[in-house]
Amino acid sequence: MVTDLLFSRSWIGSVQYALIYLPALVAGRLFDLGYFKIPSSSCKVLLLE
Q1: Cα angle vertex 27, ends 14, 41, to 5°?
Q2: Is 12:6 a contact under the CB 8 Å cutoff?
Q3: Tens-digit pLDDT profile for residues 2-35
Q4: Any stretches that span the bilayer, and where are they (predicted)?
Q5: Dmax of the chain from CA atoms?
């Protein structure tokens, strides 16, 4: 019973990490291709002001 509880906790944590990092892989690739130039430029302007 204790091992089932530990397994369920580790499974939930693994899903949370996957939901955080998998979209970042896609967004990073799109950023490298140049699709985020406008949002990146607008953020730079807002941060400098």
Answers
A1: 140
A2: no
A3: 566 666 677 888 888 888 898 888 888 888 888 8
A4: 12-31
A5: 57
